[in-house]
Amino acid sequence: MLASLRSVHPPFCAPCGPCVLTVSLLLACSGGSGASESTANTETAGTETAGTETTGEALRPNWHQDVAPLITSACVGCHSTGGIAPFAMQSYEQTAPWSEVMADDVDEGLMPPWHALTTDVCAPPSDYKHDPRLTDAEKTMLRDWADLGAPEGDPELAAALPDAPNLDLPNPSKISTMGSSVTIEPEGKTLDFFHCLSIDPGNTSDVFLDGLQLIAGNREVLHHVLVYVDTTAESAAWPGGVKQDCGGGTGINGSAQLISTWIPGGLPMETPDDVAIPLPAGSRMILNVHYHATGNGPAVDDATGLAFRWQDKVPEYTSIFALLGEPGDGDSLTGPLMVPAGAKEHVEEYAWEVSANGEPFPDTIDARLWAVAHHMHKVAVDMRMWVVDRDTGEETCLLHTPRWDFNWQRLYAYDTPVTEAVRLKAGDTIRLRCVYDNTIDNPGTAEALAEVGLDAPIDVYSGEETLDEMCIGAIGVALKGG
Question: Helices marked H in 178-261 — which ranges?
Fold first, then answer.
């Protein structure tokens, strides 16, 4: 074990109401791009009919020849009928009304949602996988299309559409869902509930997970999920596979290894080549589920579960997750977390010395950092995480999210072979820096205050409630050797 993992507190646990869907959030494009560069014709076309110039030629760019292929490859993965986005973008009629807003949000970097940025103080060690950001040419095409009035063009000239991105785990070995339902409804002012679900993977022999996806049951109340491996199957004794009010932990007396997390919009977790998670025969999976009541009456979840993909081959590396900061492993450099009311650039910092359960481990262990994530609540505005080499003092920035948005959190996997990923050695130090804006000028603060019936900032402390805060860095580490 690389770090002493705390099972008493989840890493993504800020109770909040349903995401407030601003116009920006409504354009939740996801996936890669692949459309050709725009052949924009932005000259004044005079009076146009059905997307054509007065000469009878189709205005460019238009939906059928230019925009539809981009929207299909970059947005339809979420914006489809029944998808995770609140409306579909599968046709001209569905998409054209949003053309101006879409162009604005793409120009501002708000959409597609992506918050791991290269900045003046952070040059990550490699690119990240699944970066959905558009090219400059694609952004220009969307702006030109909006400026022309979103012409439809001639369907007879329509470009071939690429396959829409599939956000499901490829080739799952097994899909298992919860054994019984839970009902979520407010209890007075209590809106947040932590229930644990025991899931049977159904593997009859030892296997190794290289893919995992949460199957979200009732998205209306599903806030976040922590995924643990219960190797002793202690959770199998829960009636109906559910232990209600299990707090922030696993709900069992024995230990369970944290292996993954899920938040709305999260993609399936796929480990790098030669990296997998041991799943012994007879193990159970424990889902610590944070439910948030909507205030619209009872809501039932009876379909949350997991899709598994496994292999029989023993991998070269095994993967674990560790949580650093507050709450998590490491030491505060600024004292107990407290963000004063009215503070605009308040900073909290933490440091964790790389170790195994608090003890140094030999250099014969090859520990590679393959994925990272940040977690804070709504008063937060900026977070950065970096590692300091024990021998040289050299700093390597791991992740910077300078435009923090509570509604868009994800795991960032490095796009590099595990053997070339950042190596963590005993005695290296991982640093975290979190910045908060506890003023009414911060939309996140205003939203959190409104949810609890306040209209002025109050002092904010560490905790799980809406107006509490955190400063957590999650790291996915691949381990080889002993």
Answer: none
